[in-house]
Structures are given as structure tokens and as C-alpha cells.
Design brief:
The chain is α+β, with helices and mostly antiparallel strands. It contains 8 helices and 10 strands. The longest helix is centred in the N-terminal third of the chain and has 14 residues, at 19-32. The radius of gyration is 16 Å and the shape is globular. It starts with 6 loop residues before the first helix and ends with a helix.
Length: 181
């Protein structure tokens, strides 16, 4: 999504967010990410003024004065940026890929099922449904290297073990990672 993203070319406009919209977005975030509730007032304080930045390809960024916090495409769900996820790592479900998948994930490739089921990879015991946002960690690394959403449930990933398991939507060093607002 942000592979060739450039702020000068892709940002269309930016507006100050109304407080009512800000409250609605906070409620939607807590609904989507239940683990974010203890941190939501630290991430988006009541008196903080947020901006909605509209980009090409129907992408919206929600940002503070200094950095983007969340993004979404069209009418989809909000995803936290990796910078925010590194500060609050427990707000999303986690999966882990093996060492062989790292270079492909960092170049923007989707995560294949064998990279999630091989030795060194890890899927949570409790099932994750289809189209659920997840943070993607790598074997031996402490911080997330990408954010994506599942194309199939974790039980299907384990049983089928073929094809794309997770769509990669934001990864380290892509256009959103390098953006300066």
C-alpha cells in the first residue's frame, strides 16, 4: 500500500479533525483493538488536536502534529502505524515469521502460509479470524516488522499451508515509515 508512497506526490489535503469525529474514531479503535483501551488516552489525549490527511488511492492518515498514528484505505478499518506499534506492542494480535521470510516482508511481499508454519514461525493458540489486523514479528527480533490483515483464519493457515496467509499493508522503511508531516 505504501511501497511507492511519497508525501509530496501522494498527499492531497489535510484538515483539522472535529472533536466529535475524534471521539467516534477512538470508539471505533477500542472496538477493533480491545487491547488498546488502557492506552487510548495516552495515544489520543482529549485536548490533542488531530489531523486527517487525505492521500491518493483513498488512503486516510490520522496524525498528531508530528507523526501519523493510524491509517485506513477507503471504508476499511484503521491500522496503527509501525511507529505507534513499537511504542505500544500489545495493542494487536501477533504472529511471527521465520528468518527466511524477513527480506521478503521488508520488500513488501505478502506473507505466505509456509512462512507462518515452519520452524521458527509462530501462530497464536487462540484462533484469529479472516480479515483481522495483525502485527508481524520476525524470529529473533523484538519489534514488529510489518502490519497486515489475515486472508484466512489461523486454523486454515495451519491446515492448508499454501498461498497467501496475511496481506502486508505497512512494513519497515516503506513510504509511511519515512513520511515527515
Amino acid at each position: 500500500m505504501f511501497k511507492k508512497f511519497d508525501a509530496k506526490e501522494n498527499i492531497v489535503g489535510s484538515n483539522q479533525m472535529k472533536s466529535s469525529i475524534q471521539r467516534a474514531i477512538k470508539n471505533k479503535l477500542v472496538e477493533t483493538y480491545p487491547n488498546i483501551e488502557p492506552y487510548i488516552n495516552d495515544i489520543i489525549p482529549k485536548k490533542m488536536s488531530l489531523k486527517i490527511t487525505k492521500c491518493s488511492d483513498h488512503v486516510e492518515l490520522i496524525s498528531s502534529e508530528t507523526e501519523p498514528l493510524f491509517f485506513k484505505k477507503r471504508d476499511g478499518q484503521y491500522y496503527p502505524t509501525l511507529r505507534l506499534l513499537h511504542m505500544y506492542p500489545d495493542i494487536m494480535s501477533k504472529v511471527q515469521v521465520d528468518k527466511g521470510a524477513i527480506k521478503f516482508v521488508l520488500s513488501g511481499a505478502h506473507i505466505m502460509c509456509p512462512g507462518l508454519t515452519s520452524p521458527g514461525a509462530w501462530l497464536p493458540e487462540d484462533a484469529i479470524d479472516t480479515d483481522t489486523p495483525v502485527s508481524i514479528y520476525a524470529e529473533g527480533k523484538t519489534h514488529a516488522l510489518a502490519i497486515g490483515h489475515t486472508k484466512m483464519s489461523t486454523s486454515d493457515i495451519k491446515s492448508v499451508n499454501k498461498g497467501i496467509g496475511i496481506d502486508n499493508v505497512h512494513y519497515l522503511n516503506d513510504g509511511l515509515w519515512r513520511i515527515n508531516l
